[in-house]
Automatic annotation (TrEMBL):
UniProt-listed SUPFAM superfamilies: Protein kinase-like (PK-like)
Protein name: Aminoglycoside phosphotransferase domain-containing protein
Any Pfam family matching the protein: APH
UniProt xrefs under Gene3D superfamilies: 3.90.1200.10
Domain Aminoglycoside phosphotransferase: 93-293
Length: 360
């Protein structure tokens, strides 16, 4: 719970407006002269009267409150406040923003000055992209260490997914985003395929979306499964070292979600690489796929995941079938991926051991 003392507010004013800024009064809106307060609560607007360069000014300091409508995390709320700061002054009659900032872990108000873009600085990790191993396996065959790596992926996911959270609304949000987010299923349908696409025409896309509504309502009954997740666990987000260790990059789409999403994301890539040498999952990539699933079930005992996986295969299938993201697929590879998208939704329980039946 954030509790901001008046001293912290005055310190912010000095940082934002200059050393001569001086707080005169602070209190509830409409009751400034009777404030008698030393701090204000989270989510409660605070009316400020302050002086800068001899000029008395008034402003309202607000901190957005979290809720279940997509504002659970501070980065959700930060995005909204950044939008308001950037765009409000461009609208006629809209209140003008005077400052944007954040509250740090010590309840200190830190101004953000004229933001245009944000960045992140990460440590440098050792290793090579895992997709290079898949390319080497495609041309040179499988090594024992490759199977060990697939099993270690499954063990790692099992540890990650063992952390649970009781928050049904967050699970609803995760499934809602899976279907409706601009970077998930509907976003891909709109943006990752050309109009009147010959491999999967508009009628097939509409049928796919309608079928997914049934799955959304089915998954509303699985809120007990909410777990810590990576959110984007695929071969371009994994670095593997020569001694078999690995690290992951680019955690995405929230800290909490459905474990089946992570499991499907890597699994579908074993299928993709296999389709470049076969018309189905076969050979060394079938060995990796089987080892991956078998180890995950052995570690977690979670076979219920098969009841919820189909929409996640659709999401990842749309990614790897997209001509924008993967322009060089042979026609037969792309067609089999699109068959998977349609067929996998027709089984209530994903038949992982017989995935090839979805390709026909």
């Amino acid at each position: 719970m954030i509790k901001l003392k008046i001293e912290a507010v005055e310190a912010y004013l000095k940082r934002a407006f200059g050393d001569d800024a001086r707080l005169l009064k602070a209190g509830d809106i409409g009751n400034l002269d009777e404030q008698g307060m030393k701090s204000f609560g989270y989510g409660k607007p605070l009316l400020l009267r302050f002086e800068v360069g001899g000029e008395v000014r008034e402003a309202v300091l607000s901190i957005m409150k979290g809720d279940k409508y997509g504002h659970q995390f501070y980065w959700d709320r930060g995005a909204i406040l950044m939008f308001q700061y950037e765009t409000s002054a461009r609208m006629e009659r809209h209140v003008r923003p005077l400052g944007l900032g954040y509250v740090n872990a010590s309840d200190v108000l830190i101004p953000v000055e004229e933001p245009e873009e944000f960045f992140i600085l990460n440590e440098k990790l050792e290793g090579h992209d895992y997709f290079l191993d898949l390319e080497r396996i495609k041309s040179d065959g499988l090594r024992d260490a490759d199977v060990d790596t697939a099993r270690e992926f499954a063990r790692w996911l099992g540890r990650v997914h063992s952390v649970k959270l009781d928050d049904p609304h967050l699970y609803y949000r995760h499934i809602r985003n899976l279907l409706g987010s601009s970077e998930c299923i509907l976003g891909l349908v709109d943006e990752a395929f050309p109009p009147a696409y010959s491999f999967f025409n508009d009628d097939r896309f509409k049928a796919l979306e309608k079928r997914l509504i049934d799955w959304r309502w089915k998954l509303k009954g699985y809120t007990h499964r909410l777990s810590a997740v990576h959110g984007d666990f695929h071969p371009w987000n994994v670095l593997v070292t020569d001694d078999g260790d690995f690290s992951v990059l680019d955690r995405s789409r929230g800290e909490w979600g459905e474990p089946g999403g992570d499991l499907a994301t890597m699994a579908i890539n074993y299928l993709l690489w296999s389709l470049y040498g076969h018309d189905r999952l076969n050979g060394p990539f079938k060995t990796l796929y089987n080892a991956y699933f078998e180890e995950y079930f052995a570690v977690t005992g979670d076979t219920e995941v098969l009841e919820v996986m189909a929409p996640f295969f659709v999401f990842r299938g749309l990614v790897i079938a997209s001509p924008e993201w993967y322009p060089d697929h042979p026609e037969q590879v792309r067609r089999r991926l699109f068959n998977l998208l349609s067929n996998v939704l027709e089984d209530d329980v994903f038949d992982w051991a017989n995935i090839n039946k979805y390709l026909e």
